[in-house]
Amino acid sequence: MTSRRLSFSMPHRGSRKSQAMDDAISELKQIYDSIRYDWPQILDHRANAIETAISLLDDSSVGLAHRLPEFENLKQQTEVGLRNVVNEHHEIFNNSIGSYHMLLSTLRESQEDSTEIKAYLESSNKEIHDRSDLLSELSQTSARYSELIDVLDAMAELTSIPDKIEQLVIDKKIHEVYDVISNGYKTAEKYNLWSLPAMAGIQSYLESQSNKLFDMIIDELQNEIYLKQTRITTDTTANISWQSIFNSSAPQLASLVSLINSKNLEQYVSNAANLDITEIVDFLTQPVQKFILHQLPELHTHSIMSDKGTEVKDDYQFLLDTKMNSNSSSFYYIYMLLRTASKLSRLHQVTEILIDSNQSELHGLINRTTEEIKSKNSTALSKLTNIKHHSEKSTLLEIMGNSNFNDSAVVVLEELFGSIFVKCLAVFHRHKVVNEIVRIIEEGQNLTSNTSMLSIWNVIKKELRTMMLNYIYDDSLVHANIINEPTTRAKDQSKIYKVITSRKNLFRFEDVTYDTSSRTATEILGIVTDVFPGFNMSGDNKELEKTKDELLGSSASPYIQTEQFNAMIDVLVPKNLFNMRVILEFFLIFIEGSQRVFANFEHSSDVTPHSKSSLQFFNDFMKISFMGYVKDGIEISFGEQVGGTFTREKPLHSTGLKLDLISLNQASDINVIANVKSDSTHNVIIYENAFNFKKLYLELCLMFNTSLTYRQDYSDVVLKVLDNFAREYHNLYHELLSAGDSTANNNRPVSQTSKWMNIPALREISMKILQAHVQNVPRSRMEELFHAESQVLLFEGNDDLNAVEKDDLLDPDSYSQVLYLLLTTSWVLSWLPLIKKETNTKNKDESDSDTDLHIAMIDKLRSNWSFLENGRMPINFTANSSDIIHHNVFLCLGPDKVSKFDQIVKTFETIRDGTLLALRYDLRCKAIYYTTNSYKHVDWTPTNEPGDADHYIGLFNQEVFAVDSKLSSMLSNVERETVFIGLTKFLNDLFIQGSINLKKVNNNGIKRILLNISTVQQMLRSVATNPEVIDFTKSSVYFEMFTLNEFTLINRFRSNEQRYTKSACNNLARLIYSEKLADGQGSSFNKGKYNDLLKKIDELVD
To answer: Where is the Exocyst complex component Sec8 middle helical bundle domain (predicted)?
Structure first.
């Protein structure tokens, strides 16, 4: 082959083409410089094209997506620059091809040289084989050196383990410590390094770290679960701290942020109305829900494949999700810690420790939070400290609020309980994560699912309940009230009173008497020393003795007092029930969040025994604890302001009402209240307890907002208060009037008035008289009713006329009390019916209709249990009903409760009517008593003509004047007349029928009787509104017939214009002949005439 000579054509400097080539090179250099300064990571020898591509696609704050157009522009410039260089330097490339042909000739020369070298190597190889023994020895020596180097490298790796572990602990990568220790053991086993004395220190270090690893896992898990914030994180957007929520800009938390920014109760109530609990819980629950339902299965699969050595394709989105916020990072860290515990075969031990330490850790969480709030709200707390508490509490709001519920307490409470409930919800979420991780790690066994969660829940529930009780219930108030109550009241004998005053545990170790010299004490001390080797009760050294005294107290008893963590909590604000108003919204947030945990974050209608645990907790606390303390507060207020009792059992028909009196001016909206004596005659005098009850009752209605909707728990309590008030008045009514039924006090005799009141027919007739008087019924109808009443009161053969004694009459004090009872019940009935408001709306707890399905359960609970919804609404109590109308105070009741309310109103109406009848009957009892005594004890056969009525009639007139004076000053004219109306008819009949008690009478005696009748008539006309209706003609004509001759008398009997009864006519005949025949020594002539007269009467009178 002939050689080919090539010529090279080089461009000349200065030519146009040379200039273009230089420009192309310069352009490429500029592009290179741009890359070097703007994109240095591309030129790095460790650069990875995939990483660069991911960063250019990452549109987060740390990504390079915003520089993607710049990168694409740089790519185009590079392509153009390279293309220009190739185009302009094509001659150089051609010259390179020519150089290739020159290299071929050089290669042939090199092949010749290689042949010579091969020959040389063959000769050298022959010489080497001749020296094989020497080379074998050198090979063994080299192998030993190589093995020694590997051992030294392994030792160096082991010696570096302490530094690696220390750095991992600092970086809070505890889960990687296990891999380092495991690899160290594998390396040592591979090279048998533990046989080397120099490695004894490393071996002991690895053993100690293996033992400490379990403790570190426990500590880290507790740090993560109980939010101790010890792990370094740069993300604060989803940190579960109260301050982060307080400053959060998330729209889902806007209503919560507004709520916790409230500065007073009214603002808090207003913001609470706009609180969207469901939206807030959605935001708080979303991270744990996403992790459990989506990230955890993928994470577990990824970890299992990695442990098996299977090549796993990198899923960058998955890695980003696990690190996207502090919650996801925390859940990922918890998973890795539990995986490490599983590798140590101590997973169940970890879960048991977490369950056992839950209470103490929660206590620490609550204490840390309390200290944070205390340091943050020092100004508000100082204001609370300087509040002067009122020693006298006159209203229910002051008693239940302990007179110290103010805006500073609201600020502290909303931050304290908001933080505690949100943190406890986060703790419960993390326990749920632990539970799900354990379940998925031990797939198919499911050993701890329900049991562990219920154990955790019970402890959280207990701590939160105790925490809330510490802030809403002041037991010292109840104990002080019970101790200060008079022991004479019926309530002192109630079961609740006995339980509260003697409340103590049945058995407590700290109450056990410990005698160090006894044999039992020595045996116990020996057992304790065996179980706890460090326990020492001997006090051999001063330091130990000091510690013993601090722990055991002066009794030096080994018994430990019962631990009640939250009993030692520092309560920041004064205790009162109104604190629950601020606590309620945050309590509901926790309930809704925990409810979703029990439901496994599924919106399912299936109800399991555990799915209602949180709702049951809420209902139990509100219905048993909260409402129980509400009733205690009402009991205190009821006892102090009204008297009697609200909740405690008492003897039937025994009342403890306070019977102090006040005078009310009902003509004005502003009431004039003053303590008055029983003889006060101005304004309207009623029992003070009734006015106090009105204040108590309206406060209850305003506090529980019973005016708008019927809420069973609140409305029923308010209704029960009213029912107990009515029962107390019913008992007072029975005490005053000795109703005479089988349940009344048997030691007290039944009065004649009570006997009459227990006659249904008489009571019916009397009530018709009262109604007819008000309705202006015609006089003829009224006379019929008067006659019917008089017949029942004075029916013939009635021995009660002679049985009426002084004790049957109401004494002045009792009469006044009956009158005050009438006035009080009338006043109560003037405003009580106005409160009733019937609603057809079902109680929201019981509403299962389709129209209510869209209302969230948590919203129903909030609607059912919110109170003080108008804040601390002041009310100006008045003597009339203007305060009820002005403030629109109502008691909404369902259809089933309206009848109960009507029954209570009916009770007061019965008492009012009964007291009015009692006053009416008592006046007639007085008439019977004095008239009967007059007939029995006055001499009716005087020798001289009488000049005045007998003193019994005078006493009766005085009684009537006193009654009229009292009634006129305290009752309206209509009510007063209901007592007197029909009295004339009754007295006419009484004078006639009562004369049967006369044994003997003469003309002068008859004149005295007529004088008595005339005196009574004049007296009644002086007090009557219409004197013309006072007519005693019937009784006067009756006794005037005493002086008539027999013929005229018979004609009178024949006409009988006054309609005397046959027994009355017979009695008159007896009176006519009484002077002659009463001694039993009358002549037969007189006896015959008397018998003839009786026969005539029998023939003439029907």
So the answer is: 325-588
